[in-house]
Protein backbone atom coordinates (compact mmCIF):
# COMPACT_ATOMS: atom_id res chain seq x y z
CA UNK A 1 0.00 0.00 0.00
CA UNK A 2 1.44 3.33 -1.09
CA UNK A 3 0.92 6.71 0.48
CA UNK A 4 2.18 10.26 0.00
CA UNK A 5 2.66 13.20 2.36
CA UNK A 6 2.53 16.68 0.83
CA UNK A 7 5.11 19.08 2.21
CA UNK A 8 4.73 22.87 2.13
CA UNK A 9 7.19 25.39 3.59
CA UNK A 10 6.19 25.98 7.21
CA UNK A 11 4.64 22.54 7.75
CA UNK A 12 5.96 20.93 10.94
CA UNK A 13 3.96 17.73 11.47
CA UNK A 14 5.16 15.84 8.42
CA UNK A 15 7.27 13.39 10.43
CA UNK A 16 4.28 12.51 12.62
CA UNK A 17 2.22 11.94 9.45
CA UNK A 18 4.99 9.78 7.98
CA UNK A 19 5.27 7.70 11.18
CA UNK A 20 1.51 7.10 11.36
CA UNK A 21 1.22 6.10 7.70
CA UNK A 22 4.28 3.87 7.91
CA UNK A 23 2.92 2.15 11.03
CA UNK A 24 -0.44 1.49 9.34
CA UNK A 25 0.67 0.64 5.80
CA UNK A 26 4.03 -1.01 6.51
CA UNK A 27 5.67 1.21 3.89
CA UNK A 28 7.30 4.61 4.27
CA UNK A 29 5.24 7.26 2.46
CA UNK A 30 6.65 9.30 -0.40
CA UNK A 31 7.17 12.95 0.56
CA UNK A 32 6.13 15.35 -2.21
CA UNK A 33 7.32 18.98 -2.20
CA UNK A 34 4.74 21.72 -2.86
CA UNK A 35 6.48 22.95 -6.00
CA UNK A 36 6.06 19.61 -7.79
CA UNK A 37 3.32 19.33 -10.37
CA UNK A 38 2.93 15.57 -10.41
CA UNK A 39 2.14 13.00 -7.75
CA UNK A 40 3.32 9.41 -7.69
CA UNK A 41 0.48 6.87 -7.89
CA UNK A 42 -0.62 6.23 -4.31
CA UNK A 43 -3.69 4.91 -2.45
CA UNK A 44 -3.56 7.56 0.26
CA UNK A 45 -2.50 11.24 0.29
CA UNK A 46 -2.03 13.09 3.57
CA UNK A 47 -1.81 16.88 3.93
CA UNK A 48 -0.19 17.35 7.35
CA UNK A 49 -0.39 20.07 9.96
CA UNK A 50 1.79 23.06 10.64
CA UNK A 51 1.88 26.67 9.55
CA UNK A 52 2.30 26.63 5.77
CA UNK A 53 3.59 29.98 4.50
CA UNK A 54 3.49 31.31 8.06
CA UNK A 55 -0.34 31.43 7.90
CA UNK A 56 0.04 34.56 5.72
CA UNK A 57 -3.21 36.05 4.38
CA UNK A 58 -5.34 33.22 5.84
CA UNK A 59 -4.36 29.79 7.20
CA UNK A 60 -3.84 27.49 4.22
CA UNK A 61 -4.65 30.16 1.59
CA UNK A 62 -1.22 30.23 -0.04
CA UNK A 63 -0.61 26.49 0.13
CA UNK A 64 -4.00 25.86 -1.49
CA UNK A 65 -2.77 27.69 -4.61
CA UNK A 66 0.60 25.95 -4.88
CA UNK A 67 1.38 23.81 -7.95
CA UNK A 68 1.01 20.40 -6.27
CA UNK A 69 -2.54 21.16 -5.16
CA UNK A 70 -3.78 20.94 -8.75
CA UNK A 71 -2.53 17.35 -8.82
CA UNK A 72 -4.10 16.70 -5.39
CA UNK A 73 -7.44 18.06 -6.68
CA UNK A 74 -7.26 15.72 -9.67
CA UNK A 75 -6.63 12.74 -7.37
CA UNK A 76 -9.52 13.85 -5.16
CA UNK A 77 -11.76 13.82 -8.22
CA UNK A 78 -10.45 10.37 -9.16
CA UNK A 79 -11.49 9.03 -5.74
CA UNK A 80 -8.09 8.68 -4.03
CA UNK A 81 -8.26 8.80 -0.21
CA UNK A 82 -7.12 12.23 1.03
CA UNK A 83 -6.66 13.11 4.69
CA UNK A 84 -6.02 16.70 5.77
CA UNK A 85 -5.17 17.31 9.42
CA UNK A 86 -5.10 20.71 11.12
CA UNK A 87 -3.37 23.04 8.63
CA UNK A 88 -4.11 20.26 6.12
CA UNK A 89 -7.86 20.73 6.80
CA UNK A 90 -7.48 24.48 6.34
CA UNK A 91 -5.62 23.91 3.05
CA UNK A 92 -8.33 21.54 1.75
CA UNK A 93 -11.12 24.05 2.51
CA UNK A 94 -9.13 26.89 0.91
CA UNK A 95 -8.58 24.66 -2.14
CA UNK A 96 -12.33 24.10 -2.39
CA UNK A 97 -12.04 20.34 -1.81
CA UNK A 98 -14.12 20.64 1.37
CA UNK A 99 -16.85 23.17 2.24
CA UNK A 100 -16.65 25.82 4.97
CA UNK A 101 -13.75 27.70 6.49
CA UNK A 102 -11.64 27.57 9.67
CA UNK A 103 -11.64 30.79 11.63
CA UNK A 104 -9.78 32.06 14.70
CA UNK A 105 -10.74 30.09 17.86
CA UNK A 106 -13.62 31.80 19.67
CA UNK A 107 -11.41 32.15 22.77
CA UNK A 108 -8.71 33.79 20.59
CA UNK A 109 -6.25 31.42 22.30
CA UNK A 110 -3.99 28.82 20.74
CA UNK A 111 -5.33 25.53 22.12
CA UNK A 112 -2.80 22.73 22.68
CA UNK A 113 -4.19 19.80 24.68
CA UNK A 114 -5.95 16.48 24.38
CA UNK A 115 -9.63 16.55 23.57
CA UNK A 116 -12.47 14.04 23.34
CA UNK A 117 -14.20 13.52 20.05
CA UNK A 118 -17.34 11.67 19.13
CA UNK A 119 -17.28 9.47 16.02
CA UNK A 120 -20.52 10.44 14.30
CA UNK A 121 -20.27 8.21 11.25
CA UNK A 122 -18.30 4.94 11.25
CA UNK A 123 -19.38 4.02 7.75
CA UNK A 124 -16.56 5.85 5.97
CA UNK A 125 -13.16 4.86 4.69
CA UNK A 126 -11.66 6.93 7.53
CA UNK A 127 -13.63 5.49 10.45
CA UNK A 128 -14.56 1.88 9.60
CA UNK A 129 -12.49 0.57 12.54
CA UNK A 130 -14.61 2.57 15.02
CA UNK A 131 -18.28 2.30 15.91
CA UNK A 132 -20.68 5.25 15.52
CA UNK A 133 -21.03 6.90 18.92
CA UNK A 134 -17.52 5.86 20.04
CA UNK A 135 -15.57 8.65 21.60
CA UNK A 136 -11.83 8.98 21.24
CA UNK A 137 -9.04 11.05 22.66
CA UNK A 138 -6.77 12.94 20.22
CA UNK A 139 -4.54 15.98 20.76
CA UNK A 140 -5.35 19.34 19.21
CA UNK A 141 -2.88 22.16 18.58
CA UNK A 142 -4.36 25.09 16.69
CA UNK A 143 -5.23 28.77 16.74
CA UNK A 144 -7.68 28.67 13.84
CA UNK A 145 -9.93 25.64 14.18
CA UNK A 146 -13.29 27.34 14.54
CA UNK A 147 -15.29 25.67 11.75
CA UNK A 148 -17.72 27.93 9.95
CA UNK A 149 -20.22 27.25 7.18
CA UNK A 150 -23.64 28.79 6.46
CA UNK A 151 -26.60 26.98 8.00
CA UNK A 152 -27.72 25.55 4.67
CA UNK A 153 -24.29 23.92 4.20
CA UNK A 154 -24.29 22.67 7.81
CA UNK A 155 -27.74 21.10 7.37
CA UNK A 156 -26.59 19.40 4.19
CA UNK A 157 -23.40 18.08 5.85
CA UNK A 158 -25.43 16.65 8.73
CA UNK A 159 -28.20 15.29 6.49
CA UNK A 160 -25.68 13.46 4.32
CA UNK A 161 -23.75 11.98 7.25
CA UNK A 162 -20.69 14.04 6.38
CA UNK A 163 -19.96 15.30 9.90
CA UNK A 164 -17.48 12.67 11.05
CA UNK A 165 -16.14 14.05 14.34
CA UNK A 166 -17.51 16.42 16.95
CA UNK A 167 -15.88 17.87 20.05
CA UNK A 168 -17.33 16.32 23.22
CA UNK A 169 -16.38 15.69 26.84
CA UNK A 170 -15.10 12.49 28.51
CA UNK A 171 -18.67 11.16 28.64
CA UNK A 172 -19.37 11.82 24.97
CA UNK A 173 -21.59 14.83 25.66
CA UNK A 174 -21.73 17.20 22.69
CA UNK A 175 -23.02 20.64 23.71
CA UNK A 176 -21.90 24.29 23.72
CA UNK A 177 -19.94 23.70 26.96
CA UNK A 178 -17.84 20.97 25.30
CA UNK A 179 -17.25 22.99 22.13
CA UNK A 180 -13.47 23.34 22.15
CA UNK A 181 -13.03 26.30 19.81
CA UNK A 182 -16.41 27.77 18.86
CA UNK A 183 -16.95 25.54 15.80
CA UNK A 184 -20.47 25.53 14.38
CA UNK A 185 -22.34 22.54 15.87
CA UNK A 186 -19.11 21.28 17.57
CA UNK A 187 -17.79 20.09 14.19
CA UNK A 188 -14.18 18.81 14.27
CA UNK A 189 -14.06 16.85 11.01
CA UNK A 190 -16.04 16.53 7.75
CA UNK A 191 -15.87 14.58 4.51
CA UNK A 192 -16.59 15.65 0.95
CA UNK A 193 -19.65 14.57 -0.99
CA UNK A 194 -17.92 11.54 -2.54
CA UNK A 195 -16.60 10.44 0.86
CA UNK A 196 -12.92 10.20 -0.13
CA UNK A 197 -11.63 13.47 1.39
CA UNK A 198 -11.58 14.04 5.17
CA UNK A 199 -10.51 17.24 6.88
CA UNK A 200 -10.14 17.38 10.65
CA UNK A 201 -8.54 19.72 13.18
CA UNK A 202 -7.41 17.13 15.81
CA UNK A 203 -4.25 15.07 15.32
CA UNK A 204 -4.84 11.29 15.10
CA UNK A 205 -1.18 10.92 14.02
CA UNK A 206 -0.19 12.08 17.50
CA UNK A 207 -2.18 9.33 19.20
CA UNK A 208 -0.59 6.20 17.74
CA UNK A 209 2.02 5.24 20.34
CA UNK A 210 1.72 4.62 24.09
CA UNK A 211 4.46 7.25 24.48
CA UNK A 212 1.99 9.77 23.03
CA UNK A 213 -0.23 9.04 26.01
CA UNK A 214 -2.76 7.11 23.96
CA UNK A 215 -3.30 5.11 20.78
CA UNK A 216 -6.87 6.10 19.83
CA UNK A 217 -5.64 7.47 16.51
CA UNK A 218 -4.36 4.12 15.23
CA UNK A 219 -7.79 2.97 14.12
CA UNK A 220 -8.20 5.96 11.85
CA UNK A 221 -5.10 4.95 9.89
CA UNK A 222 -6.11 1.26 10.05
CA UNK A 223 -9.45 2.30 8.53
CA UNK A 224 -7.67 3.87 5.56
CA UNK A 225 -5.68 0.71 4.98
CA UNK A 226 -8.78 -1.49 5.38
CA UNK A 227 -10.69 0.63 2.86
CA UNK A 228 -7.86 0.69 0.32
CA UNK A 229 -7.01 -3.03 0.45
CA UNK B 1 -2.45 52.66 -10.94
CA UNK B 2 -3.21 51.62 -7.39
CA UNK B 3 -5.94 49.31 -6.20
CA UNK B 4 -7.02 49.30 -2.58
CA UNK B 5 -8.84 46.21 -1.40
CA UNK B 6 -10.74 45.99 1.87
CA UNK B 7 -11.55 42.49 3.09
CA UNK B 8 -14.07 42.20 5.92
CA UNK B 9 -15.97 39.37 7.56
CA UNK B 10 -19.50 38.92 6.22
CA UNK B 11 -22.43 40.08 8.28
CA UNK B 12 -23.54 37.21 10.46
CA UNK B 13 -20.01 35.77 10.78
CA UNK B 14 -18.84 36.22 14.35
CA UNK B 15 -15.67 38.26 14.69
CA UNK B 16 -13.97 37.28 17.96
CA UNK B 17 -10.99 39.57 17.26
CA UNK B 18 -13.28 42.55 16.67
CA UNK B 19 -15.06 41.71 19.93
CA UNK B 20 -11.75 41.60 21.82
CA UNK B 21 -10.72 44.97 20.35
CA UNK B 22 -14.13 46.39 21.31
CA UNK B 23 -13.66 45.12 24.85
CA UNK B 24 -10.16 46.65 25.05
CA UNK B 25 -11.47 50.01 23.80
CA UNK B 26 -14.15 49.97 26.49
CA UNK B 27 -11.41 49.20 29.02
CA UNK B 28 -9.62 52.37 27.87
CA UNK B 29 -12.77 54.38 28.51
CA UNK B 30 -14.05 54.70 24.92
CA UNK B 31 -17.68 54.12 25.80
CA UNK B 32 -19.20 55.41 22.57
CA UNK B 33 -18.23 52.39 20.44
CA UNK B 34 -21.20 50.17 19.56
CA UNK B 35 -19.40 47.47 17.59
CA UNK B 36 -15.97 46.66 16.11
CA UNK B 37 -15.38 44.57 12.98
CA UNK B 38 -11.77 43.82 12.08
CA UNK B 39 -10.63 43.28 8.50
CA UNK B 40 -7.67 43.53 6.12
CA UNK B 41 -6.44 46.27 3.82
CA UNK B 42 -4.40 45.24 0.78
CA UNK B 43 -2.78 47.78 -1.57
CA UNK B 44 -1.80 46.67 -5.07
CA UNK B 45 0.44 48.58 -7.49
CA UNK B 46 -0.79 47.76 -11.01
CA UNK B 47 0.48 48.09 -14.59
CA UNK B 48 -1.75 49.80 -17.15
CA UNK B 49 -4.24 52.67 -17.14
CA UNK B 50 -7.50 50.97 -18.11
CA UNK B 51 -9.59 51.24 -14.93
CA UNK B 52 -12.34 48.85 -16.05
CA UNK B 53 -9.81 46.18 -16.96
CA UNK B 54 -7.93 46.69 -13.69
CA UNK B 55 -11.11 46.42 -11.66
CA UNK B 56 -12.10 43.18 -13.39
CA UNK B 57 -8.65 41.77 -12.75
CA UNK B 58 -8.56 42.75 -9.07
CA UNK B 59 -12.05 41.26 -8.65
CA UNK B 60 -10.70 37.98 -9.99
CA UNK B 61 -7.73 38.21 -7.57
CA UNK B 62 -10.17 38.69 -4.69
CA UNK B 63 -12.30 35.72 -5.75
CA UNK B 64 -9.28 33.46 -6.23
CA UNK B 65 -6.97 34.44 -3.38
CA UNK B 66 -7.32 37.74 -1.53
CA UNK B 67 -10.67 36.94 0.10
CA UNK B 68 -12.32 33.72 1.20
CA UNK B 69 -15.88 34.34 0.04
CA UNK B 70 -17.23 31.66 2.41
CA UNK B 71 -16.65 34.08 5.29
CA UNK B 72 -15.46 37.37 3.78
CA UNK B 73 -16.72 40.25 1.63
CA UNK B 74 -14.39 42.56 -0.27
CA UNK B 75 -14.52 46.02 -1.82
CA UNK B 76 -12.19 47.49 -4.44
CA UNK B 77 -11.15 51.10 -4.85
CA UNK B 78 -8.94 52.29 -7.73
CA UNK B 79 -6.72 55.37 -7.47
**CATH homologous superfamily of chain A, by name?**
Class I glutamine amidotransferase (GATase) domain
Count the helices of chain B. How many? 2
Which CATH first-tier class of chain A would you pick?
Alpha Beta
How many independent structural domains of chain A?
1
CATH class descriptor name of chain B: Alpha Beta
Structural class by SSE content of chain B? alpha+beta
| Mean of pLDDT of chain A | 97
Series of H and E elements of chain A: EHEEHHEHEEEEHEEEH
Overall body shape of chain B: elongated
Which structural class fits the helix and strand makeup of chain A? alpha/beta
Largest pleated sheet of chain A: 9 strands, mixed
Taken as a percent bin, the fraction of beta residues of chain B is 25-35%
Topology pattern of chain B, helix = H, strand = E: EHEHE
Assign an overall shape of chain A: globular
CATH fold description of chain A? Rossmann fold
Short description:
The complex is a heterodimer of chains A (229) and B (79). Chain A has 229 residues and is of the alpha/beta class.
Structural descriptors:
heterodimer; A: 229 residues; alpha/beta; Rossmann fold; nine-stranded mixed sheet; two-stranded antiparallel sheet; B: 79 residues; alpha+beta; three-stranded antiparallel sheet; 35% helix; elongated
Descriptive overview:
Chain A is of the alpha/beta class and 229 residues long. Chain A is 24% helix and 24% strand. Chain A has one domain (3-228): Rossmann fold (3-Layer(aba) Sandwich), CATH 3.40.50.880. Chain A is built from 6 helices and 11 strands. Chain A is globular and about 45 Å long. The N and C termini of chain A lie close together (8 Å). In chain A, 53% of the residues are buried. Chain A binds chain B through residues 57-58, 61, 65, 93-94, 99-101, 103-108, 146, 148-150, 182, and chain B through 13-14, 16-17, 20, 64-66, 68, 70-71.
Amino acid sequence: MKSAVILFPGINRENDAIAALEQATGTKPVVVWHGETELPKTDIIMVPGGFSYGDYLRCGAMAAKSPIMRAVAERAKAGVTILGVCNGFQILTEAGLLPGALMRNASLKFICKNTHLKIENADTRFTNQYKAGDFVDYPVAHHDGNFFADSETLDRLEGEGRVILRYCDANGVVDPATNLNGSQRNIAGIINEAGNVLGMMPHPENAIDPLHGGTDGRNLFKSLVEAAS
Amino acid sequence: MKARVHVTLKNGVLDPQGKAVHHALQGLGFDGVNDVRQGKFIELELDGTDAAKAEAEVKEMCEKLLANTVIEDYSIELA
